[in-house]
Amino acid sequence: MNLKFRALIIDLLLLVAIAFISEWMNAKALSQYYSGFYFSITMIIPFIAIFRWRYFGMFVSVAVSIITLAFMNGATMETWLIYVFGSIGMLGACVYLELRDKRKWVSSGLVYTLSGYVPVIFLRAFVFYILGQDFLSGILIVGANEMLNVIAITMFVTLLMKRKNSVMVNIKSLYDGGTEHV
To answer: Which one of 28, 87, 123, 166 is most buried, by most CB atoms within 10 A?
Structure first.
């Protein structure tokens, strides 16, 4: 097993472990102080994984969805379908990074976050549609439910991208002999 593959596995497992601990703490806090709204910034972890490892970070995106559902009380099969298939929308963030690297665009935390989150919202709404709901109402339900998360995660990702020494490092490029492009 080469060094790059070993680093990939260890890094992705650490990110999944951080997501697990974060959701566990969130579930514990929710059981004590439930306000009727579920707020979690665990979705920042797939953005970090995708930034670091590009398409390999998608494994973390799906794992975070499964972890979130595991701690969610009363999650039905429909909820599992909505979250897991919706997480595939994070491919939009991968595509944005590929286009950004080829065209030498200036990095933007807002564009990066929205390129991942907007497809997630549309895919979740599409699953709503497949399950018999109206597509537009699915977009409104998911969009309203995720709006605070999108705002918080955009702020965190932007702050991480602005820092010189942060977790937002293109590790895959460094192992491939390239330079880091933040």
So the answer is: 87
Topology of the domain comprising 3-175: Arp2/3 complex 21 kDa subunit ARPC3 (1.10.1760)
How is the chain split into domains, by residue range?
A: 3-175
Q: Counting runs of H as helices and runs of E as strands, what totals does the chain give? A: 8, 0
The crossing angle, in degrees rounded to 10, of helices 44-53 and 58-71 is: 160
For residue 57, the 8-state DSSP code is G
pLDDT digits (tens, 9 = 90+) for 104-150: 777 778 888 999 999 999 999 999 999 998 999 989 988 888 888 88
Could you read off the pLDDT of 4-23 as tens digits, one per residue? 888 889 999 999 999 999 98
Residue among 16, 2, 86, 7 at smallest CA distance from 48: 16
Tell me the whole-structure pTM to 2 decimals: 0.85
Q: Are 56 and 12 in contact (CB under 8 A)?
A: yes
- The angle formed by the CA atoms of residues 117, 137 and 109, to the nearest 5 degrees, is 15
